[in-house]
């Protein structure tokens, strides 16, 4: 069935392509955060273990919402690790950093998601896609606050 939601196909594709990058970055940040939740050690263990759990739980919900928005625009949401790895600007860790290095890397990851989401706002704004604008604005708020909280550990 042809999609007729008041946004032309070219704009829907541009928005979906940018949202796919937000989805990939969010998924990679989710994986990194969950990994750190499992593997954090040291005197900050308890507080960071809980903080990381809150963050990855929120990210899991966001990932679903972003993917569903891509689908509502009429495009397939990327869903494999290979696709995410190709689209993301967040790299996975291959070593086991100490607790405060985990915090630093997660702060950087949240800042990267912010930059990716800001890029996705451009085609959404041009197409006057309020639903995507709202989704991205909420993501900007969450990642700004999360990055601030993480950076506060490092001061």
TrEMBL record:
Domain Ferritin/DPS: 17-155
Classification via InterPro entries: DPS_DNA-bd (IPR002177), DPS_DNA-bd_CS (IPR023188), Ferritin-like (IPR012347), Ferritin-like_SF (IPR009078), Ferritin_DPS_dom (IPR008331)
UniProt KW keywords: DNA-binding
GO function terms (MF aspect): DNA binding; ferric iron binding; oxidoreductase activity, acting on metal ions
Protein's UniProt keywords contain DNA-binding: yes
Family in the record: Belongs to the Dps family.
PANTHER family with a match to the protein in the record: DNA PROTECTION DURING STARVATION PROTEIN, GENERAL STRESS PROTEIN 20U
Record's protein name: Starvation-inducible DNA-binding protein
Provenance organism: Fodinibius sediminis
Top-level taxonomy: Bacteria, Pseudomonadati, Balneolota, Balneolia, Balneolales
């Amino acid at each position: 069935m042809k999609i007729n939601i008041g946004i032309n196909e070219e704009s829907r594709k541009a928005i979906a392509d940018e949202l796919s990058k937000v989805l990939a970055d969010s998924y990679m940040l989710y994986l990194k955060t969950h990994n750190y939740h499992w593997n954090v050690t040291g005197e900050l263990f308890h507080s960071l273990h809980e903080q990381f759990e809150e963050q990855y739980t929120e990210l899991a919900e966001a990932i679903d919402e972003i993917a569903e928005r891509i689908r509502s625009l009429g495009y397939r949401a990327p869903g494999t690790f290979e696709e995410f790895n190709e689209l993301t600007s967040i790299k996975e860790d291959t070593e086991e950093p100490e607790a405060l290095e985990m915090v630093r890397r997660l702060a950087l990851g949240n800042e990267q998601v912010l930059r990716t989401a800001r890029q996705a706002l451009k085609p959404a704004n041009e197409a006057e896609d309020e639903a995507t604008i709202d989704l991205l604005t909420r993501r900007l708020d969450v990642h700004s606050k999360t990055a601030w909280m993480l950076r506060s550990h490092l001061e």
